[in-house]
Amino acid sequence: MNPNSNPDTIFSAPIDKIGDFTFDERVAEVFPDMIQRSIPGYSNIISAIGMLAERFAKPHSNVYDLGCSLGAATLSMRRRIDQEGCQIIAVDNSSAMIERCKLHLNAYRSTTPVSIVEADIRDISIENASVVVLNFTLQFLSPEDRYTLLEKIYGGLRPGGILILSEKFVFDDPSASELLIDLHHDFKRANGYSELEISQKRSAIENVMRPDSKQIHKERFAKIGFSSFDVWFQCFNFGSMFAIK
């Protein structure tokens, strides 16, 4: 269990009718524990987002964390960015997440200011950006909205700016797909989740999270016009990519 979080027991008891997964108050209360026990390599990704932001953030530019949840990526970037006039804009549409995000970020003092915005990331203007982060966010948008958002991000990025995109991946090869899904479930079992929890969480999330393959992500990046892109981290069927304008 994450020592800084309430334990995730949301799916520990049988649920008669499993509804779609939502980022509500219950999830916000246990989110740090849930995410650490559910996403292999999550801590590595968060740490490296700060390293990438330190490298790419420019003076007098904006850094966006779109779908910031409790602000882990924002905090990682805030700790590493040291550029005059640079600000971070953290956006999430969950009021429960936003309230806790404010508490987490207010506990850490930094010269880099953060604006925390409760809004739909599809409605946010992207302007003068040197870094944009979508950390396990894009997969919750409808497939038709993904290209539109990425195109808007590209338009708002400075030349040489970076998009960091973390996602769950799907795989065309059935054997590879089955193996990686099984390894992910083994990871969750090793972190204390029961078979019931794994099954019920999967049922709740399958209608709201529809991941893409790495190839689809790369095809989008190429079509939009990014000059360089690839996978920089992967653990089982989860990973993170960069795309540079």
UniProtKB/TrEMBL annotation:
Catalytic activity: prephenate + S-adenosyl-L-methionine = carboxy-S-adenosyl-L-methionine + 3-phenylpyruvate + H2O
Binding-site positions, S-adenosyl-L-methionine: 42, 67-69, 92-93, 120-121, 135, 202
Signal peptide: none
UniProt domain Methyltransferase: residue ranges: 63-161
Primary enzyme class: transferase
One Pfam family in the UniProt entry: Methyltransf_25
GO biological process, any: tRNA wobble uridine modification
General function of this protein: Catalyzes the conversion of S-adenosyl-L-methionine (SAM) to carboxy-S-adenosyl-L-methionine (Cx-SAM).
Family: Belongs to the class I-like SAM-binding methyltransferase superfamily. Cx-SAM synthase family.
Protein name (database record): Carboxy-S-adenosyl-L-methionine synthase
The organism of origin for this protein: Vibrio agarilyticus
Taxonomic lineage of the native organism: Bacteria, Pseudomonadati, Pseudomonadota, Gammaproteobacteria, Vibrionales
Gene (name only): cmoA
